[in-house]
Amino acid sequence: MSKLIRGYEVVIGLETHAQLSTQSKIFSGSPTRFGAAANTQASAVDLALPGTLPVLNRGAVERAIRFGLAVGATVAKHSIFARKNYFYPDLPKGYQISQYETPVVQGGTIEFFVGDTPHKVTLTRAHLEEDAGKSLHEDYAGQTGIDLNRAGTPLLEIVSEPDMRSSAEAVAYAKALHALVVWLGICDGNMQEGSFRCDANVSVRKPGAPFGTRREIKNLNSFKFLQQAIDYEIQWQIDLIEDGGTVQQATVLFNPDNGETRAMRSKEDAHDYRYFPDPDLPPLVIPQAWIEHVRAEMPESARVMTERFQNDYGLPAYDAAMMTQSKAFAAYFESAAKACGQPKLVANWLMGEVSRRLNAADVGIEASPVSPEELAKIVSRIDDGTIHNKGAKQLFDSIWSADVHDDIDSIIESSGLKQMSDSGELDRIVDEVLAANPKSVEEYRAGKDKAFNALVGQAMKATKGKANPAQVHELLKKKLG
After folding, report:
1. Distance between CA atoms of 124 and 284, rounded to whole angstroms?
2. CA 173, CA 443: separation in Å to the nearest integer?
3. pLDDT tens-digit series, residues 239-260
4. Which of 52, 150, 202, 315 is 20 to 30 A (C-alpha) from 322?
5. Number of helical H runs and strand E runs in the chain
6. Alpha helix positions (H), 277-354
7. Backbone angles phi and psi of 436, in degrees to 5
């Protein structure tokens, strides 16, 4: 059941534009490099000058097929390109080549976790289209400049059903989709450069009522902004309805400076764009042999790898999903797990200390200063009793911060992190602790469990933290009876 906000159910669908990782544009040979000087990568074809004809980029189609296979969708053997007609300064042709009635990818699902709860979102479609140019409003003395370098850049627009019921769910879906397109190698996922951006359709309704009127928040290029924009829009719509107003269908923009959305224009419907088949492009025909060729060359999917990690390494479903959040993360886990034979402990460290450090530094696992082999050795030394968890964290922190990495065992020795292994010495220390703390012994025997923890603390203090806590517990229990 959906969580209600002020008595309203939230309904969210996302339209995501993933820039495909081809070297040239979707209908011309112009390059797609980011950061080139304005208007140096726009050809006559991109501008639809008289006498030019578009030619479809085979690589863009292949990437669409790869995506369709990964999400379990139907890859259409026959699809149509259409002209989406509208006027905007950064669209010099006066239309955008897209797909409307017959997209190349139809259906499919994205599975993900929100916290540790599994979710699934159904996809409506994914279609190929070209990007428009870009309007530049800064440094032009009150005027607007137009950069047409992006015009014709290949996009895969991925449209979800309105299955999401919170901003947290929408962000988790967007992150899962982002991870997938990067995993497949069809998009570099660079949100700062506009390679992956989302439009969020948001509406609210009373439980059981028909869908409310949606407003579309355009061009959200960070997961943080996606969540903030949706949360603001939800409250804005509820406030409007509670004040007796009516939500009007509109396209809105999110301002990250003040955290608010504002209407840009009334939302168009499909008939406003006067879609019709592009006369310059024949239908896209994809033979089954091509689909099978793409399937054979695809990497192991995150979904299949997740199942393999559960079966081969005994990981719970949530842990396995976290280990496959990216190819690099999965490779790091598998390398460390094989090296030490303790996959669950490795997974715990990756979800705990390693992720904490990566998030704080805002870097990916590729940039981890602690190698998979080093993490495996830390886990091995915990498992064989050489160090305890507290010492392992100290060891991990010192390796993370070091410019030059010494051998793990040498660091353990030089840092004094090695646990006490002399059972006779520990037995003597525990006897001394019991003799020095008769009141705690008496309280424990009277049923006060806190007294036992105090005795453990005294024993660990006496050993300067070098004793194995489990061994201390065992000895104390034995001597106390």
Report:
1. 19
2. 54
3. 999 999 999 999 999 999 999 9
4. 202
5. 16, 17
6. 288-297, 302-313, 317-323, 327-340, 343-349
7. -85, -10
**Which run of H or E residues covers position 120?**
strand 117-130
Q: Starting from the edge strand earliest in sequence, which strands make up the sheet with 82-85, in order?
A: 95-98, 82-85, 276-277
- Closest to 80 in 3D by CA, of 55, 67, 98: 98
From CA 280, how far away is CA 82, in angstroms rounded?
10
- The answer to whether 293 and 98 have CB atoms below 8 angstroms apart is no
Tell me if residue 175 falls in helix, strand or coil. helix
85: left (phi over 0), alpha (psi -120 to 50) or beta: beta
Q: Does 142 or 199 have the greater pLDDT score? A: 199
What average pLDDT does the segment 144-168 reach?
96
What's the rounded Cα separation, in Å, for the pair 479 and 473?
A: 10
What sign results for the dihedral spanned by CA atoms 25, 223, 318, 71?
Answer: negative
At 442, the amino acid letter reads: E
Burial class (CB in 10 A: 0-12, 13-18, 19+), 209: exposed
Query: Residue 102, class by beta-carbon neighbours within 10 Å (0-12 exposed, 13-18 middle, 19+ buried)?
Result: middle
Of the candidates 130, 140, 78, 129, the residue with the CA atom closest to the CA atom of residue 106: 78
Neighbours of 422 (CB within 10 A): 9
Q: What whole-number distance in Å separates Cα of residue 42 and Cα of residue 32? A: 10
The residues with which 5 forms a beta bridge, in sequence order, are: 8
249 contacts: CB under 8 Å, gap ≥ 6? 213, 214, 215, 266, 267
What is d(CA 440, CA 453) in angstroms, rounded to the nearest whole number?
9
pLDDT in tens, 82-112: 999 988 888 989 999 999 999 999 999 999 9
Distance CA 377, CA 382 (A): 9
The overall pTM is greater than 0.70: yes
Structure tokens at 375: 């993490």
Phi, psi of 262 (to 5 degrees): -140, 145
Those residues with Cβ within 8 angstroms of residue 462's Cβ, 6 or more apart along the chain or in another chain: 429, 432, 433
Q: What is the pLDDT of residue 5?
A: 94
Once rounded to an integer, what is the mean pLDDT over residues 345-367? 94
- Identify whether the C-beta of residue 420 lies closer than 8 Å to the C-beta of residue 466: yes
Encoded amino acid at 249, one letter? Q
Instruction: State the Cα–Cα distance between residues 104 and 61, nearest whole angstrom.
Output: 8
Provide the pLDDT for residue 268. Answer: 67
Residue-level length of the chain: 481
Nearby residues of 77 by Cβ (< 8 Å), 6 or more positions away: 285, 286, 287, 288
- 441, 434 Cβ separation under 8 angstroms: yes
